[in-house]
Amino acid sequence: MDLSVLKFIAMGIAIGLGVVGPALGLGWATKAIIESIARQPEVEGQISKYFYIGAGLIEACAIYALLVVILIGFVLK
Amino acid sequence: MEFHIGKHWVVNLFGLDVHMDTLITLWITMAIIIFFAALAVGKINLVPTKIQAVFENIVTIFSSLTKPMGEEGKKHTPILMTLFLFIITANLIGQLPWKILNFFPHVKALHGEFASPTNDINVTGALAIIVLFYYIISGVKVKGISYFKHYFQPIWFMTPFNILEDFVRPLTLALRLFANILAGEILIMVLGGLIASLLSPESISAFCQNTFGSILPSGFIYNLSLFLGSLLPLPIMFFELFVAFVQALVFTLLANAYISGAVAKHH
């Protein structure tokens, strides 16, 4: 097979599999914060800032996959 | 679609390759921060003026961040505040319409891409290395040579992992900030050019002939769809404002966690 075709396949697989974990993590984090706010609505202001920080950290994992895709596709020859 | 990532306007200064576009936006960032800082501390009143009240609030927030470190932790407030204000200004400056500069042919010929300075791994790497040296040095200042004892805890064979941690921490700090901002730039670039790359005047005129007959001029439809297509990255741009804040916050809080871990008495 042509090498450039393989490169595109590798990019697709890398981002597709790399995003699964962060997606699950973000889903669980959102579920947890919604449940805790539903149980105790008065803590929303205190805990939502930890959620944003955690979401930022989780999102970074998906961004690492994107970084690898960019490396495969555009930087490495 | 023309589309280049990580290309910079490289200028050779004194035998060093300098990314000139990053340098310019970096200096603009510093100028903004220094301007507002000078405005804030210029004339301190007992009854704060508006801008003084804003800055007093910022200082209060950051001094509450280092409160768990106790009285000694107060001296770490300035670096955390500097990191946060610098990173958030640098991130937000990338949302200015720098792409307009590409209309000037001799700016476009430089192959540079004016965006936020944190779009360049060299800037975020430098920030991360500053944090690394800062927490090691402040740990040594507090505990002396016994700071290095924590490499052998909890047991001797964990030493390689503890040493590896000092490499992984700045690496992830730098990569997280850099990649988040770069991904935002790429997303905006791709979405902004998507409609223009998919449409052509011929296809639009054929579409107009088939659907409307010749009621509407096809040039008008083409320009209208290009305009609507240029609005496509707008929601991503709003999201980027949020990401800029969150990444600055994450960087600052992680730096805070590393520093407070290094200076903690019982470890």
Short description:
With 77 residues, chain A is an all-alpha fold. Chain A has three helices and no strands.
Describe this structure in words.
The complex is a heterodimer of chains A (77) and B (267). Chain A is built from three helices and no strands. Chain A is mostly helical. Chain A has one domain (3-75): Up-down Bundle (F1FO ATP Synthase). The longest helix of chain A has 32 residues, at 44-75. The mean pLDDT of chain A is 87. With 267 residues, chain B is mostly helical. Chain B has one domain. Chain B has nine helices and two strands; from the N terminus they run E-E-H-H-H-H-H-H-H-H-H. The longest helix of chain B is centred in the C-terminal third of the chain and has 40 residues, at 159-198. The radius of gyration of chain B is 24 Å and the shape is elongated. The model of chain B has no long low-confidence stretch (mean pLDDT 82). The chains are: A mainly alpha (77), B mainly alpha (267). At the A-B interface, helix 3 of A face helix 6 and helix 9 of B.
In angstroms, what separates the terminal alpha carbons of chain B?
55 Å
CATH class of chain A: Mainly Alpha
What level of helicity do the residues of chain A show?
A: over 70%
Share in helix of chain B: 55-70%
Gyration radius from CA atoms of chain B, angstroms: 24 Å
Biggest pleated sheet of chain B: 2 strands, antiparallel
What is the strand arrangement across the widest sheet of chain B?
A: 1-2
Give the overall shape of chain B: elongated
Task: Output the keywords.
heterodimer; A: 77 residues; mainly alpha; F1FO ATP Synthase; B: 267 residues; 9 helices; 66% helix
Task: Break the fold down into its secondary structure elements and pairings.
The complex is a heterodimer of chains A (77) and B (267).
Chain A: H1 3-18, H2 20-39, H3 44-75
Helix pairs in contact in A: 1-3, 2-3
Chain B: E1 10-13, E2 16-19, H1 20-41, H2 50-65, H3 77-93, H4 105-108, H5 121-143, H6 159-198, H7 201-212, H8 218-230, H9 234-263
Antiparallel strand pairs in B: 1-2
Helix pairs in contact in B: 1-3, 2-3, 3-9, 5-6, 5-9, 6-8, 6-9, 7-8
